[in-house]
From TrEMBL:
This is Cell division protein. The keyword Oxidoreductase does not apply. It comes from Gottschalkia purinilytica. InterPro entries: FtsL/DivIC (IPR007060). Residues 60-94 form a coiled coil. The chain crosses the membrane at residues 37-59. Residues 1-21 are annotated as: Disordered. Keywords: Cell cycle, Cell division, Coiled coil, Membrane, Transmembrane, Transmembrane helix. GO terms for biological process: cell division. The keyword Kinase does not apply.
Amino acid sequence: MLVAKKEHHSYTKHKTKRKKVIKNKNNRKKSNIGVKLKIIFCSAIVFVSCIFLLSRYAYITKIRLDVSKLEKEVVTLNDKKSDLKIELEKIKDSGWIEQQAKEKINMRPAREDQLIYINVSSNDKKSNKQIAENKDSNFFSGIVDKILNMF
């Protein structure tokens, strides 16, 4: 016959083991929450830094685009400046001025009777009077010339 062996069990030991297991589970949950929070925090920092870097890259790209536009504008303005310098030199040319005066204003070179010469070295009153008389006669001859030019 078989006889069952008598064992003496203490329930207090078993209860403490359960409490330890429950405490271990709570500690694991707390440590898991801590690890999860650390992971979320680190990923948030990485995400924010990536967004910051992308915004800076976009800003740099915008600045480069503005610089290239300004460089193109400088080139066009330099071309325009050189064209204006050439045109200025052309305008300064007395031959061109004379040609434009003849074409647009219908100017002609002065005739000998239209010229008045003044002697600035002499202070004679007689010579100044003669010059004034010549002006009067030239004035009337100028009016006659204008009337004749109309026809």
